[in-house]
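[Meeting: bench + compute handoff]

Bench side (C.D.) handed over the final construct sequence. Compute side (W.E.) agreed to return the predicted structure before the next meeting so the bench team could plan truncations. Sequence as handed over:
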Amino acid sequence: MVADSSTMKLQLANLVRKLSYREGDFLLASGKRSSFYIDLKATTLHPEAANLIGKLAVAKVNDLGLMIAGVGGLTLGADPLATAVSLAAWQEGMFWPAFIVRKDAKDHGTSRYIEGVENIQLGAKLLVLEDVVTTGGSSLKAVERLRESGFDPVAVLAVVDREEGGAKAIADAGMQFISLLTLRDVRESR
């Protein structure tokens, strides 16, 4: 029996709360200070959570009618997400190869910013993945790199939206913003 989306969302929120949510004093990648931190790597690298993320992401993208040809984002946070979503799509009969956007170009070999491009045609519509969105800066950096390389990122999907302006910044940049969970979902889970 396949769980419905609301059940899977609750399961994912519970795992995020248990594995990745911490309270204290933290400096975020955006430079802001926060009384809580969501280090999603423990969740995205967990097999049950990765499976849920992949299935929920594919369902959201399909429900919105987005036509995409690849999934990925800025390394390191998006790396396990890209694999999870790509595999979930494959299990549903869709070919959404994963890609990785480097923060800096390789200083050897191909010297490129994006890995996995061999599986994606130039001009392809892509879904940018992000573990946690605060200001949207990391997602927008990935979007910029993809556009510079000849691809067409059409949406950003975050596992958790901290609800601190990132969704608006992404929308203002002409991208559709999708989140699997909000901060409220995580805080209200058990």
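W.E. noted at the follow-up: The chain has a mean pLDDT of 94. C.D. will use this when planning the next construct.
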